[in-house]
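subagent[fold] <- orchestrator: predict structure for attached chain, return tokens only, no commentary.
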Amino acid sequence: MHAEVFLDTNILVYAYDMDAGEKRTAALGIVERGWLHLGSMAVSVQVLQELYVNLLRKGRTHEEASVILHDFSLWPVVENTLPLLHTALEMKERWQTSLWDALIIAAARESGATTLISEDLNHGQDYGGVRVLNPFRPAVS
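subagent[fold] -> orchestrator:
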């Protein structure tokens, strides 16, 4: 598997959140690029699990959420595995992140991505070859 970009859960959540305003617009643009260049953007089983929970929380039915997850299963998807967990545990200590964030970083590396699009991690930080891009960060002038 070799994706260029890995998407964190929040990007997908904003893309489906009708109340997210400008964040929804930005997230939709990112997701649309992923569909136009199928294979260039990856997610993980963890991202899909978190997306499902958030879609239900935002009022989607199980059926609607299931269809959305099924659609994203056409993208490169990093599986939750024991080796991925072990890598994430090492990253958690190295980068002083939560386990959940370390799993996202580990999955991004596993996908081959060099860019991790996320609102939750430090914009611009390089986590061992994966650089974080926060698309909602105000432009610096």
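orchestrator: received. Logging for downstream: The longest strand covers residues 41-44. Residues 5-131 form a domain with the Rossmann fold fold (CATH 3.40.50.1010).
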